[in-house]
Design a protein that fits this description.
Low-confidence stretches: none
Distance between the termini: 20 Å
Shape: globular
Radius of gyration: 14 Å
Helix content: under 10%
Mean pLDDT: 92
Order of helices and strands: EHEEE
Strand content: 35-45%
Structural class: mainly beta
Length: 71
């Protein structure tokens, strides 16, 4: 299938978005921000928040990244 702009995401840490990227330049691209905390401290728009790298999933050995999505 063809890739549409709605299929594309920009992923970065909270600090990388804040200091190196201008989210307004990404148009309709979805934003996926990594900030490991109990509450997302990123002030810009985002669609997915990666809130920990120490999650667990039954059947998967070791730690896994966990995300909260508004998609």
């Amino acid at each position: 299938s063809d890739v549409c702009s709605s299929d594309l995401m920009v992923y970065a840490s909270k600090s990388w978005f804040a200091s190196h990227l201008d989210v307004s330049q990404f148009g309709s691209y979805r934003i996926w921000v990594a900030h490991y905390a109990e509450k997302c401290g990123y002030g810009g728009r985002y669609d997915i928040w990666q809130n920990t790298s120490k999650g667990s999933v039954d059947g998967v050995p070791g730690n896994v990244d966990m995300n909260i999505s508004s998609i």
